[in-house]
């Protein structure tokens, strides 16, 4: 990333297979994750996101474009996060890559999770 820090290098290790971090961008919390969101990392993912969401009222984008693997436990965690956001009347979106998008669409959760193809699209959806 020219002139800046690669956000992935700044991610903290949540588990052996999942790293995560967040930044504030355009008045939103943007979470970035890389690795695997699965049965082994779901609890740490939920604890981390839950703690950050409790400390802020901002709209949130969950950037999963660098997630290599998403299983049913990871999907369950995303549904729980979506419910937390809805209960708090917090606008949110999920950004997926082809693997994440395919998994989410397979269980028909793309509308519930406000699935977007990329970060700029997600940010514009939230701003609208």
Task: Give structural notes.
It is a single chain. With 128 residues, the chain is an alpha/beta fold. It has a single domain (7-127), classed as 2-Layer Sandwich (Transcription Regulator spoIIAA), CATH 3.30.750.24. The chain has helices at 42-54, 72-87, 98-106, 119-127; strands spanning 12-13, 18-25, 28-37, 59-70, 92-96, 115-116. Helix 1 runs parallel beside helix 2. The radius of gyration is 13 Å and the shape is globular.
How much is the average pLDDT? 89
Helix coverage percent: 25-40%
- Please tally the helical runs, counting DSSP H or I stretches of 4 or more residues: 4
Q: What is the H-and-E element order? A: EEEHEHEHEH
Give start-end ranges of low-pLDDT stretches: 1-9
**What is the CATH superfamily?**
STAS domain
Number of domains: 1
C-alpha end-to-end distance? 28 Å
CATH-assigned fold name:
Transcription Regulator spoIIAA
For the sheet with most strands, the description reads: 6 strands, mixed
Q: Which class in CATH terms? A: Alpha Beta
- Spatial strand arrangement across the major sheet: 1-2-3-4-5-6
Number of extended strands: 6
CATH A-level architecture: 2-Layer Sandwich
Proportion of strand residues = 25-35%
Report a brief summary of the structure.
The protein has helices spanning 42-54, 72-87, 98-106, 119-127, and strands at residues 12-13, 18-25, 28-37, 59-70, 92-96, 115-116.
């Amino acid at each position: 990333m020219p002139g800046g820090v690669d956000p992935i290098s700044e991610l903290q290790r949540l588990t052996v297979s999942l790293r995560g971090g967040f930044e504030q961008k355009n008045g939103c919390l943007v979470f970035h994750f890389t690795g695997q969101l699965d049965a082994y990392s779901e609890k740490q993912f939920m604890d981390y996101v839950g703690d950050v969401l409790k400390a802020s009222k901002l709209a949130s984008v969950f950037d999963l474009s660098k997630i290599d693997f998403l299983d049913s436990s990871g999907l369950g965690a995303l549904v729980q996060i979506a419910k937390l956001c809805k209960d708090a009347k917090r606008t949110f979106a999920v950004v997926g890559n082809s693997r994440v998008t395919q998994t989410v669409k397979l269980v028909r959760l793309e509308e519930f999770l406000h699935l977007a193809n990329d970060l700029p699209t997600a940010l514009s959806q939230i701003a609208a």
